[in-house]
Write a structure and sequence with these properties.
The strands form 4 sheets. This protein has a 5-stranded antiparallel sheet with strand order 1-2-3-4-5, with no helix packed on it. Strands 6, 7, 10, 14 and 16 form a 5-stranded antiparallel sheet that branches. It has a 4-stranded antiparallel sheet with strand order 8-15-11-13. The radius of gyration is 24 Å and the shape is globular. The chain folds into 2 domains: about 60 residues, no CATH class; about 230 residues, no CATH class. Helices cover about 20% and strands about 30% of the residues. It is built from 8 helices and 16 strands. The longest helix has 13 residues.
């Protein structure tokens, strides 16, 4: 958890008269160039520094992120009291990928379940992030800068990956699916940054083995496997079984009990879909996979599941 440090710089420009006279060797628009310098924003808004050295301006992280051949300035909402196990937007830019994954997955283990960092990565959920540059920061980008806005959109993805049958072989079969009993999803909704949060729905569909084998036969390649997901989506998943659905209204970690879904049919895989509605122009949200686990104590897990019923997608 980041805590705001004691360093504060706040200069109010209201009520002050500022005169700017051109000096020798300077252009008349030198003052204007200063105003559009991103660093000038520090002089206008309350600025704090976290213990880790990151700058918070007017309630937003100001982070330099390398984007190809140059740094891009990002403004990401700052959350002081973060929920354990939830992944937030800034982590992509201030933590290594391995550190992010292990911290996230190891912190969301249900009671009665086991975590293995090798197999956990075989579980997946759609990755969605939305973050719009706040109005106060827009004047501090140069005219030739690309404004780093990430817009919210629906997304879908398979729950589990497949191993190839042998080294060097690009083909897989339904028997090589890496199956886990429980999957976690992290959702950061940034409720405090707007009055009306967007509506989010998470649905899980089962893809019947008979349907898949009819399409591909015994083996299939990764490219055709991924392409088939898009085909199913175009048909509104009418060939799949809708197994569970839940509206998400708050930041938190949510879980799918795939061990329970396995009892409902003979499925080759599952498709998870996020759908959003009533999203305004300024949206801040991140949703992603947050760990896959195996049940090792059914009794303990059942008790945990009852106590965390509000976090279960299939309850």
């Amino acid at each position: 958890m980041n805590r705001i440090g004691k360093k504060i710089a706040w200069v109010s420009l209201s009520g002050m008269m500022i005169f700017s006279l051109p000096s020798c060797g300077k252009k008349d628009n030198a003052a204007d160039e200063t105003l559009i310098d991103p660093d000038y924003i520090i002089q206008e808004y309350e600025t704090t520094t976290t213990d880790e050295g990151y700058t918070i301006i007017n309630g937003f992280y100001r982070i330099k992120s390398n984007n190809g051949d140059k740094d891009t300035i990002l403004y990401i909402p700052y959350i002081e009291n973060k929920q354990q196990g939830v992944s937030y937007l800034e982590e992509l830019h201030i933590k290594s990928s391995t550190e992010r994954r292990i911290d996230l997955e190891a912190g969301n283990i249900p009671d009665g379940a086991l975590y293995n960092k090798q197999t956990s990565s075989a579980y997946g959920a759609p990755y969605v992030e939305a973050s719009i540059v706040p109005d106060f920061a827009l004047p501090y980008y140069n005219s030739n800068d690309t404004i780093p806005n990430w817009y919210l959109s629906d997304s879908a993805g398979y729950a589990f990956t497949y191993r190839v049958e042998k080294t060097g072989d690009v083909k897989s079969t339904s028997d090589t699916m890496v199956s886990l009993d429980i999957g976690a999803i992290s959702v950061a909704m940034y409720e405090d940054f707007y009055d009306d949060i967007p509506k989010m729905n998470i649905s899980v569909y089962g893809v019947p083995k008979t349907l898949f084998k009819k399409k591909f036969g015994k083996t299939f390649g990764s490219k055709e496997f991924l392409k088939y997901k898009d085909t199913l989506k175009k048909n509104d998943y009418k060939d799949c079984d809708l197994l569970c659905s839940k509206d998400i209204t708050a930041t938190g970690v949510y879980y799918v009990d795939y061990a329970e879904l396995n009892k409902k049919g003979d499925y080759i895989n599952y498709i998870m879909e996020y759908k959003f509605s009533d999203a305004g122009e300024k949206v801040y949200l991140k949703a992603c996979a947050a760990g896959g686990y195996k049940i090792n104590n059914e009794k303990v897990y059942s008790e945990w599941k009852k106590e965390h019923a509000e976090q279960m997608i299939n309850n």
